[in-house]
Amino acid sequence: MTEEFEKNEKSEECGYCRLTIIALIIAIFSALLTLAIASFMYHGVHDSYPIMPKEIMSSSMKRLLVPHKKVIILKMEAKNRCYILPIHLSQNLANTKLSFLNIALSHDLLFDVAGEDGVDFCATTPAYILEKDS
Question: Which domain of life is it from (predicted)?
């Protein structure tokens, strides 16, 4: 009778071990699945954009990266102008000819293009959008 009792007790312990291992596997799988779904659903900025390409570095120019609007704002004190450069144009700037319309953006349009950070950065300085010269 003792042998049967010991066998039954070992069987119960082994059952608890299996149950614990299965619960751990389910928890790990659930966590990984949650991370995969969250990563798939995230629509943030995935691309690693350069903060400022070396081609447009200058000591008389202030720069601001606005990642959620995907623009770089360049403020030139000497010319009293702000230029808004789309980030996709900044990646190959050395080989790109840029132009701008000589009409300053209104406050509302600047807010739409560059966000609140851009409006604060440019303040009273007129802003112009740079575009690829065709």
Answer: Eukaryota
DSSP states of 76-115: ETTTTEEEEEEHHHHTTGGG--EEE-SSPPPHHHHHHHHH
pLDDT tens column, 21-79: 999 999 999 999 999 888 777 665 545 444 445 545 555 788 888 888 888 998 988 78
pTM, 2 dp: 0.55
Give 84's strand partners.
Answer: 73, 129
Angle in degrees, CA 46, 51, 49, rounded to 5: 25
Helices (H), 42-79: none
The residue among 69, 97, 94, 96 whose CA lies nearest residue 84 is 69
Where are the domains positioned within the chain?
1-43, 54-132
* Rounded Cα gap, residues 68 and 66, in angstroms: 6
Give me the amino acid identity at 52.
Answer: M
Please state, in angstroms and rounded to a whole number, the distance separating the CA atoms of residues 134 and 132: 6
What is the edge-to-edge ordering of all strands in the sheet holding 71-76?
Answer: 61-66, 71-76, 81-86, 127-132, 98-100
Q: Which of 7-21, 32-46, 80-94 has the highest mean pLDDT?
A: 80-94
